[in-house]
Amino acid sequence: MSSHYEAPFREPLIIGEKSFHDISVDVGTPIFGKASKSWWVAFSIALVAFLWGIGCIVYTVSTGIGVWGLNKTVEWAWDITNFVWWVGIGHAGTLISAVLLLFRQKWRMAVNRSAEAMTIFAVIQAGLFPIIHMGRPWLAYWVLPIPNQFGSLWVNFNSPLLWDVFAISTYLSVSLVFWWTGLLPDFAMLRDRSTKPFQKKIYTLLSFGWTGRVKDWQRFEEVSLVLAGLATPLVLSVHTIVSFDFATSVVPGWHSTIYPPYFVAGAIFSGFAMVQTLLIVMRKVCNLENYITILHIEYMNKVILLTGGIVATAYFTEFFIGWYSGSPYENYTYLSFGAATGPYWWAFWALLTCNFFVPLTLWVKKLRRNVMWTFFVALVINIGMWFERFDIIVIDLSKGRIPSGWAMFQPTFVDIGTFIGTIGFFFVLFLLYARTFPVIAQAEVKTILKSSGQRYKRLREAGTSLEGTATDERTSAAQSTKQLEAKKDDKAAKVNDLLGVLGSFDSTTQKEDDLKKVSGIGPKMEQVLNSIGIFTFIQVSKMTKKEYDLLDSITGSFPGRAERDDWSGQAKKLIN
Amino acid sequence: MSSNKKYWKSVEELNENSSIVEALKQNEFVEEIPTDKFLGNKDALESSSTTRRDFLKYVGFSTAAATLASCEGPVIKSIPYVIQPQEIIPGVANYYATAIADGYDFASVLVKTREGRPIKIEKNSLAPTNGGANARVNASVLGLYDSLRVQNPRKEGNTVSWDALDAEVTQKLTTLKDSGKDIVLLTQTFASPSTSRLIEEFKNKYGNVQHVVYDAVSESTALDAYQAKYGERALANYDFSKAMTVVSIGADFLGDWQGGGFDSGYSKARIPNQGKMSRHIQFESNMSLTGANADKRVPLTPSQQKVALAKLYSYVVGGSVSGSLPEQIEDAVKKAASQLKKAGSDGLVVTGIQDVNAQTVALEINEYLNSKAFDKSTPILTRQGSDKDVMTLVANMKAGKVGALIMCGVNPLYTLPNASDFSEGLKNTDLSVAFSMKEDETSSESQFIAATPHYLESWGDVEFKKGHYALMQPTIRPLFNTRQFQESLLKWTGNDVSYHDYIKDTWGTSILNGSSFNQALHDGVFVASNDAETITDAKKTEVSAIKTPDAEVVEATSGDAAKALASSVKPSAFELTLYTKIGMGDGQQANNPWLQEFPDPITRTSWDNYLTVSKSDADTLGLVNTHVSNGALNGSYVNVTVNGATIKAPVIIQPGQAKGSVGLALGYGKSKGLKTEMQTGVNAYALYQGFNTIQSVTLEGAAGEHEFACVQLQNTMAGRDDIIKETTLEIFNSEDKEHWNMVPVTDYDHNEISVREKNADIWESFDTKIGPYFNLSIDLNACTGCGACVIACHSENNVPVVGKREVRKFRDMHWLRIDRYYSSADTFKQEQKDLEELGTFELYTKIENASMENPEVAFQPVMCQHCNHAPCETVCPVAAISHGRQGQNEMVYNRCVGTRYCANNCPYKVRRFNWFLYSENDEFDYYMNDDLGRMVLNPDVVVRSRGVMEKCSLCIQKTQKTILDAKRDGRVIKDGEFQTACSAACNNGAMVFGDVNIENAKINELLADDRMYHLLESVGTKPNVMYQIKVKNTTES
């Protein structure tokens, strides 16, 4: 990972004059510092919502599913909508951490920790719904293939719901392991920096005895790669399997071969939207603007554009094929003329507006890099993706094959309360996470600091040696800048000395020579020389041993080469 | 059956000389158990080295074991019989034939009892007449276990003993004997020979006794007309199976018209047989069940009906009448007349107009046609009420001329339009005794409530039709301290015999004519033998011979009847037709939750009555029906005024309702003697003035919105052709079946193949050849939509009642429903065509909204289709639903965790989820929450807990019983033995259930029938339930 080279014209991934130490400090601040007032406000609201949700769930389980608004036609509504929505949100985390890891997308490092946390918390919310939506949730363990004394009593491997059980539990466990593995060096960092004994003890336990030996790092990287390899198929499989809940059925509108890829794209679409929503707030609250930059936001917007495009294509395909089939049963599917003009017209148009029209604005670069607009679009997509699942489930069920059964669905306060409760639960977990976990994968970010950090990029561009820059002595950004200025001044003096001997180049009277004709000067060196102010053979021909040394000390590269190649001799020949 | 089988315990037994076998005969164990070694030596025992720790271990273990062993579920104690009744075997049902005669429903039925409890009513197939049980009769068993029954005789609200009541009443009656005041018996129609005799005796004893017969829903005019013409106070008996052309003018003869029970005959003639089926033309104002089944339905107002009937008379019989009709109706009448004339004696005219002239005209036309369907030898006796007598009685009561009023089976304070007059009169009456099962409007105002038993606890006899008798016997000991009316009359007349003996005596002397009483009791029915019939016939001929001149006189004046009818028409802005719903009848079973929840076959609305209004009138009056966002139906209120009496009723806009007419059902709006949940609807009897179902009314919109509980909101099939298939007789007779019963096709190898072909199927099929394999066929031609099957299913399978609030949320639990569709265009064919021709971006409203003018109507009973490739089975994660060897989808309630995926994936939407605990839950105060109500539960079917899915099982408990019975008897099961509750309840032969592995079974015939199709066949579910295409006889001539 450390062998990373990043082209200079790329925008830096870490801005601000960050040093390695700064990263440790920045990541540790929310944990070692006191919680802000806004955190407490947010946490209280989330907790109240969570407790309300628990109340609704207890009411549901003790009284019966009848307290929801379901009926004999629409037997799933908010429950499964919420389930699929939360699972979908959970997709960005794995995509960011696993797929982008394999594709060596370094920008993932700033966002992957939180995205993974979000994944896990979202999957927990998702997992709640299949259990509480059961008529007899206390028997939920029956969906597990547990050996029992009844012999033939076994689960039904034909059922997509059973596949869901496996998919979700696998996803949750792999995500959790992957997340934890990545956390080890960061927990160790917190352990080392912690001063309170209890806190130190907790982080010692959490870091699993990480010492930072080379062997630790080697194993860490190997495990990360293996887990990434394991998790990558899960990105595709989990939502594929969730889509099977619908695609393998015979319900018009559900029974659709396009569902698996369409659902996966939709999941990533919604997952990134949720990452945006969370991180835009978090970078502000936790002062992480230097790590989660506009560039990160733009990158994620691009993923949203791509997956949103796939989703939109799927929408139009669904609409077209439904119409083209000529089957009267397809007249009322969630993407059909019947739905657009029927009693659920508002849900239909909410879906198209939120998931198609609004995200289109991200094609404009200015809007793509606008934090407020991005936040708005992300929120809209979150809503839109909820409507997508609502539409699929409720609109399709509401007008099934037998018209006598056509019915609509109206949520009760319990439906709504349970959903709000899971949002509360999610934020309770996320806010606690933000106060106790390293929210940036600092160990990983440090690996790209030299290649992608703004400060180092600038240093490299300036041609300054990076030697020693990483081991600053507890400096602040301001001090290091001063030193840099000092060095810069030093360099400028040398350039002056050199040009005093060689004579300066006047572009109005003189003509540039092709210095590359001198053997030993390549295009790069020509640029370097040009940057110093050497453009002509005459200037080069004036160089002696003293000037050669001076040049070497300015450029810092290929010491002694100019002398060996006898640039002045060659230049003299070239003048003639 | 005793058995000599010997069960061997080990191979050792084969060895005759085995010592072990010998040893085992004597001892429990082969070897001596060395107990002595262990316990015998006291000294050794003393010095045994059980350590303290070991001791504690033993103590600990035994305590734990004892504790665990004592952990058991709650023990429910049952008391065994001290002497077991011979006929009761626990777990085996007994059947008794009896009859219901509650004044409105008269039927000979079979009662299923389990462990002494009646739990279900079935039709009595031995009965040649009135053997069919309609929805109300099926539901009547629940009335036995009604928790609001009066459990003791009461005097002014306090419990008294029968002795005290008898003493007071007889004393009063005796004093009245000479007071000059009348003693009046105000009763329902009993149609009971024994009761008639008894009342005669009572009259003889007290002298000044009047017997007034009161039918809440009166057929007085028809009785009067029949009496005038044929000299008997009875109703004309029509056998619709013999009528090939039926013209009905306002007669809901598939409903409760003139006592009902005509539907099975009708259905027989509706099944196309050798290219022939009956033709039915209906002229009516409300959309009735009958009109919905008609080949041609003409909506017209009641006053137009009168003109139409008069004109029909003039076209068929001759003469001319005044009055004019709109051209279209005039044309329809002409065509009907010409068809009737063509049909000749195959024709039949019936009318429901409550007018003596109208009834006379109908009788005359039938007479003229010499209609084969008109059976004059067996007139119907189940309505005897006389409006005139009742009105006179009320006047007399008010005038204080009535000394004692003894009521039985009537509730005049609820059913009389002038109830306040009656109430006033009741106060002027010295003695009032109400025989009643409830503290209802009338009994609670009477001095005495004589608590009566339910008919399942009573003795009785009925003469449904002349010569057709039935016996009523108790099927359970009276649950409460009750005594039936007749028993009391016997007591009050000083007769010591029991009513049972009295009936026996009556029958022995005047009915049985030497036949066995026990046989009659066993069969439940008795038909007077041929001799007797000839005697009756002879008498009849005599009578008619005498009457002939009279009849001619009537006939001579009868052209006048038609003329009088035509000229009696008084036009008014709105005409109200009061009707009865097949689910509620006259309202005496209003406290029956099964019937309250039973959706009306036409409006599909339960728990209510309502004013049906035509669309154009609703628009004029600004009345609306709206769907709220959860899909429930709301409607405006309207004030309905008849002669100053106003009631506020909710409105349902009824497709097919004749413009200028409105309809309202009787039997609702009861306020006393029933649970709060059951107090639904408005009391339309207040508008039933002069006992006429037709009233001119004024309507005025009222504020507010009514909440309906409607189980079907989408009224059309939205142009889909895979649901109810229909064709016309003409096409049916002339075209190949591929033309009118197209099998859906699918694509295979770039060719279109029928979905029934093997290649269209990706699944392995089940082996259907071992053991029985069940199929159910539903003939859409024979099904009238009456709903007897719905209640039978409810009763057989312990289907819970969920109440109005839940039905409104679309959560009814009916395992069997009867879908009703209106066409969006004039016909269903046109609707399908409309859909095909619909532009891409044209709204679907054209095919979604029912035609309001006069839509075609179709019914379709739908229960679980028991698919061979069932979508529900594959999706259940815990395999709680699986396919049985006998063709059923077997729902394993215990295994169900309630994901509801199966219900979502069911294309037929027949699965029902237990949203709540419906039993033993006071939130659902219907019948399953009290011990009395739960006695009706069928012990063979589990009561489902909350959170599980349930559905039709094809009555697996019944089929299994049949199999086990045959197995026990060692015989082969015959065709027809297998029945489901619905197929057994169907009076019309629409549902046929059977085992396809029985050769030549009727079900195989139906399976191979040209009309057979499967619901949504294109989905490929391969159901075991099939339908027979509906054929309509649209031929005009």
Describe the overall structure.
The complex is a heterodimer of chains A (576) and B (1037). Chain A contains 23 helices and no strands. The longest helix of chain A is centred in the first third of the chain and has 34 residues, at 160-193. Chain A is mainly alpha-helical. In chain B, helix 11 links the parallel strand 10 (279-284) and strand 11. Chain B is globular, with a radius of gyration of 32 Å. The model of chain B is unreliable at 531-556 (pLDDT under 50). The interface between A and B is large, with 59 and 66 residues.
Helix content of chain A: 55-70%
Strand content of chain B: 15-25%
The number of distinct β-strands of chain A equals 0
Q: How many DSSP E strands of chain B?
A: 41
The most extensive interface, with participating residues per chain, is: A-B, 59 and 66 residues
Quote the beta fraction of chain A: under 5%
- Could you tell me the mean pLDDT of chain B? 88
Low-confidence stretches of chain A: none
Kindly report the average pLDDT value of chain A.
Answer: 86
**Number of continuous helical runs of chain B:** 34
End-to-end C-alpha gap of chain B: 65 Å
Output the structural class of chain A: mainly alpha
Could you say which overall geometry of chain B the principal axes of the C-alpha atoms support?
Answer: globular
Unreliable spans of chain B are 531-556
Structural class by helix and strand composition of chain B: alpha/beta
Main sheet specs of chain B: 7 strands, mixed
How many strands, what sense, and barrel or not for the largest sheet of chain A?
A: none
- CA-to-CA gap between the ends of chain A? 50 Å
- In N-to-C order, the SSE pattern of chain A is HHHHHHHHHHHHHHHHHHHHHHH
Number of helices of chain A: 23
What does the overall shape of chain A look like? elongated
